[in-house]
Amino acid sequence: GEHNEAMMELGSSICGKKPDCGVCPLNDVCLSKKHSKEKLIPVVTKEKKRIAIELHFLLLNYKGQFLFLKNKKRRFFKTIFSPPYLIFGDKLSSGYANERIFSEIFESKYRKEFNTFQKHSITHHNITLKVSEIILDSKISFHPSEAKWVKINSIGKEFHSSIAGKLMKIVKKH
């Protein structure tokens, strides 16, 4: 669940090839640190081939509020709220399938694509982050436990991922 995603995010951002133990909130209970093995764990193995994808976030704007979803069937962010997104790339498996409703919205003539992007990497993926905004005439309905509408300045509080900061960098440029 959310705890596991948070631990993976913490591990990928702090405990990599050169662990930054000084900023780790688990420094006091870390067994690697306690036994002076933080440079040995995790064992660095040959990196798997990385998949290049474009993760294109859709900021669906209804009167200054933006749709955030949580859906266990998505490829990424299964247990946390995030803006809806589409995944583009060459020869992707069915596990990368986009939700039809968002593919249709992406094709909207009202979609305004931001002209900047950010780079990110996550679990064997090299990601280009892009953003489009679509002004909606009415709210799209989803089950309340899977959707909420938030203000743009709440992205970092609602979207618990390092990608949220990069997403905000794109938004602030526009």
Q: Can you characterise this structure?
A:
Strands 1, 2, 3, 4, 5, 6 and 7 form a seven-stranded mixed beta sheet that branches. The radius of gyration is 18 Å and the shape is globular. The relative contact order is 0.19. With 174 residues, the chain is α+β, with helices and mostly antiparallel strands. It has helices at 2-14, 31-34, 100-106, 155-158, 162-172; strands at residues 51-62, 65-69, 85-88, 112-113, 118-122, 125-135, 147-151. Helix content is 22%, strand content 25%.
Question: What is the structure about, briefly put?
Answer:
By secondary structure, the chain is α+β, with helices and mostly antiparallel strands.
Question: What keyword list fits this structure?
Answer:
174 residues, alpha+beta, 7-stranded mixed sheet, 5 helices, 7 strands, globular
Q: Calculate the terminal CA-CA distance, rounded to whole Å.
A: 34 Å
The profile of the biggest β sheet is: 7 strands, mixed
Count, helices: 5
Overall pLDDT, averaged? 88
Q: What fraction, in percent, of the residue positions are helical?
A: 10-25%
The count of β-strands is: 7
Which ranges are low-confidence, i.e. pLDDT below 50, for 5 or more consecutive residues?
Answer: none
* Strand percentage: 25-35%
Q: Overall 3D geometry?
A: globular
The radius of gyration computed from the alpha-carbon positions, rounded to a whole number of angstroms, is 18 Å
Q: Structural class given helices, strands, pairing?
A: alpha+beta
| Secondary-structure element string | HHEEEHEEEEHH
